[in-house]
Design goal:
Radius of gyration: 28 Å
CATH class of the largest domain: Mainly Alpha
Strand content: under 5%
Largest sheet: none
Number of helices: 15
CATH superfamily of the largest domain: MetI-like
Number of domains: 2
Distance between the termini: 67 Å
Helix content: 55-70%
Length: 295
């Protein structure tokens, strides 16, 4: 005679860790959070100092006091009266937008050709791109300056914009690595439907590679907006074409005693870049991290 066994469900209570283990975990977590808080405070301290100094009067900025009394918001208005900050910002926006647009239009097709098209000499061309990536830009400064001087473009923004229309080694490398992560099946399906390579690039690859393209664009925006060396080289004798870094350096030399105005101008220049980075931080991190998945 057989008896049916009734299944039983056993419940297991989670054992509580010993007291010394819990104490060790608490101390480790406390130490980690303390280090993070200290590092964050050290990072934020210069920005807080710039902000507080920008709200001081001229006498307060030269005193040892760190807290402004009273808060002088008029400094941000005086900056525009004592310097053509709007003109510098417009020049930086022109340089930043045209250079970024030319960089994307020229680097995306090259990166697609190096990642998805099979042609003789592709690996050799990619090695040339890597070699160009390792060369510092100061190597080509003298011949390029001579070329732009003979073309009578020195003193304008064109020597800063035109080279970006021929691609950039870093951008090509970053986009090529990102394009390698796109599954080949998507491209094959588009070819079966009768799409050409240009249409595949514009309708399939560019849509799937939005994080990588956004990361390259953000890199270009931050670089061109903060670029000091090349605008100083080509536009130093033409104040009407100064960008924000050049104008801010000249403003500091003219008003170096008035640290409150200098800090106010610095804060106005720095704020848009910081806000842009935090607004696009998710896309930026995603575009950079996914480039190392394959390739």
């Amino acid at each position: 005679m057989s008896t049916a066994s009734v299944p039983t469900t056993a419940t297991f209570a989670r054992r509580k860790p010993p007291a010394h283990v819990r104490r060790k975990r608490f101390l480790v977590g406390l130490a980690n959070y303390s280090l993070v808080i200290v590092a964050a405070a050290l990072f934020i301290a210069p920005f807080v100092f710039i902000f507080l100094t920008s709200l001081m009067t001229n006498d307060q900025a030269l005193s040892p006091h760190l807290w402004p009394h009273p808060f002088r918001w008029q400094n941000f208005v005086d900056v525009f009266h004592k310097s053509p900050l709007w003109r510098w910002t417009l020049n930086s926006l022109i340089y930043m937008s045209l250079a970024t647009l030319g960089l994307l239009l020229s680097s995306i097709p090259v990166a697609y050709a190096l990642s998805r098209l099979r042609w003789r000499g592709r690996d050799a061309v990619f090695i040339v791109v890597l070699i160009a990536l390792m060369l510092p830009p100061q190597v080509s400064v003298v011949p390029l300056y001579v070329m732009w001087a003979k073309a009578h473009l020195v003193g304008t923004l064109w020597p800063l914009i035109i080279p970006n229309c021929f691609g950039d080694a870093f951008s090509i490398f970053l986009l090529r690595q990102f394009f390698m992560t796109i599954p080949e099946e998507y491209l094959d399906a588009a070819r079966v439907d009768g799409c050409g390579e240009f249409r595949i690039l514009t309708t399939v690859v560019c849509r799937l590679a939005k994080p990588g393209i956004a990361a390259v664009a953000l890199f270009s925006i931050l670089y061109t907006f903060n670029d000091f060396f090349l605008p100083l080289l080509y536009t130093i004798d033409s104040p009407s074409h100064w960008t924000v870094p050049i104008g801010l350096a000249q403003f500091r030399s003219l008003h170096q005693v008035q640290w409150n105005l200098t800090m106010a101008a610095t804060l106005l220049v720095m704020a848009p870049v910081v806000l842009l980075f935090f607004a696009a931080q998710r896309v930026f991190v995603e575009g950079v991290t996914l480039t190392g998945v394959k390739g």
